[in-house]
Design a protein that fits this description.
By secondary structure, the chain is mainly α. Helix content is 54%, strand content 11%. It folds into 2 domains: 68 residues, GMP Synthetase, Chain A, domain 3 (2-Layer Sandwich); 37 residues, no CATH class. It has 7 helices and 3 strands, in the order αααββααβαα. Strands 1-2-3 form a 3-stranded mixed β-sheet.
Length: 149
C-alpha cells in the first residue's frame, strides 16, 4: 500500500483560495471589522467600547451593545453613525441603524465565588447575638452565622 504524502495548507490559504463559501465569509468578516474600526475611531472612545457591528447591507446597519443604557446613548448618535458609514465606508445608500442589546454571556470560570465567613466572624456574630435584646435581630444574626457552616 503506497503512502500518500499529506499536504499542509495554512488557514489563510484555505480561507481565501480553496472554498468560495469560506472565502466569501472571510471577506464579509473583514468588511464588518473595517466598518467597526472606522466607527470606533470617529465616535467617543467610551461609547465605542460598547459598540459591536453585527451586520450591514446596502441600506441598514445593525449594531450590538451590552446594556440598555448604552443602547440609548448609541441611538442618540445614529445621525453621526450614518454620516460616518456613508462618508468613510462608502455605504452611500445606508438609511437606517438598528441598535440591539445583547447581554454578554459570562464565563463560568469568572463567576464570583460564594463568600464564606471565617470562624472568628461567626464567633463574633454569635456573641453579638447573645447581647442583643431584639428577638428578630438576634435570630437573624444566628441564621446568618450558620450560612458559613
Amino acid at each position: 500500500m503506497p503512502t500518500e504524502k499529506k499536504q499542509f495548507h495554512s488557514i489563510r490559504s484555505l480561507l481565501h483560495n480553496n472554498s468560495e463559501i469560506l472565502s466569501a465569509l472571510c471577506y464579509r468578516a473583514s468588511q464588518i471589522s473595517r466598518l467597526q474600526k472606522k466607527l470606533r475611531l470617529k465616535l467617543d472612545p467610551v461609547l465605542s467600547a460598547h459598540l459591536l457591528v453585527a451586520n450591514f447591507n446596502s441600506d441598514a446597519l445593525t449594531i450590538h451593545t451590552d446594556s440598555p443604557a448604552w443602547a440609548a446613548r448609541l441611538r442618540f448618535k445614529i445621525p453621526d453613525i450614518l454620516d460616518i458609514a456613508k462618508e468613510t465606508c462608502g455605504l452611500r445608500d445606508l438609511h437606517s441603524v438598528r441598535v440591539k442589546v445583547v447581554i454578554p454571556v459570562r464565563d463560568s470560570s469568572c463567576a464570583t465565588k460564594a463568600m464564606s465567613l471565617s470562624d472568628e466572624t461567626v464567633q463574633m456574630m454569635l456573641k453579638t447575638a447573645d447581647s442583643i435584646t431584639d428577638d428578630n435581630l438576634r435570630r437573624a444574626l444566628i441564621r446568618l452565622s450558620k450560612h458559613s457552616q
